[in-house]
Design brief:
Structural class: alpha+beta
CATH superfamily of the largest domain: Superoxide dismutase, copper/zinc binding domain
Strand content: 25-35%
Radius of gyration: 21 Å
CATH class of the largest domain: Mainly Beta
Mean pLDDT: 87
Bound molecules: copper (II) ion
Strand order of the largest sheet: 1-2-3-7
CATH architecture of the largest domain: Sandwich
Shape: globular
Number of domains: 2
Low-confidence stretches: 1-32
Helix content: 10-25%
Number of helices: 2
């Protein structure tokens, strides 16, 4: 009786282990390719979308396509909380920081959520693509989510904690893809 019991276990365990090995890489690849995405909301008639996708290399690609943005230079960042409920979008919190300093001009910087300024012409189109090697999926998908903010003014890349970029004129809640 005891010998039969061991035989059953020997058959079942390797099958279960094989199934896990086959399933894990497929899930990871699908997850990475779809990315986080969101439509922006704004009190200034700004519309459009943001996507953040981890590519096969592990580098994150941030794509922003907006219309109706005031002409000028604007700071844009990923913020630590996926919440645009406050009128001034303060609910999105500070930058996605991961313990780092703000700005590429500062020792210990930049924040993973820091992005280069976007220059917008008279047509109001803000269309940029950035590569980002600081972001991780764990950071993006933490329990309070991730926000995206367009500011009224340029980021100076050095003032703490957020580059003196003025008020928040558009906001988005980046949502993880559901499989
Ligand atoms: Cu910001």
């Amino acid at each position: 009786m005891i010998e039969k019991g061991y035989d059953m276990m020997n058959i079942k365990l390797p099958l279960a282990a094989t199934a896990l090995l086959l399933a894990t890489p497929a899930l990871a690849e699908t997850h990475g390719m779809e990315g986080f995405s969101a439509e922006v909301q704004s009190n200034e008639d700004i519309t459009g979308s943001v996507t953040v996708t981890e590519e096969t290399s592990g580098v994150f690609v941030v794509t922003v396509d907006l219309e109706g943005v005031p002409e000028g230079v604007h700071g844009i960042h990923l913020h630590e909380t996926g919440d645009c409920s406050a009128d001034d979008y303060s609910s999105a919190g500070g930058h996605l920081a991961d313990g780092r300093e703000h700005g590429v001009k500062v020792e210990g910087g930049p924040h993973p959520g820091d992005l280069p300024n976007a220059t917008v012409g008279a047509d109001g189109v803000l269309s940029v693509t950035h590569f980002n090697t600081f972001l991780t999926t764990e950071m993006m998908a933490d329990e309070d989510g991730t926000g995206f903010i367009v500011h009224s003014d340029p980021d100076d890349y050095e003032s703490q904690p957020s580059g003196d970029a003025g008020s928040r004129i558009a906001c988005a809640v980046l949502v993880e893809p559901q499989s």
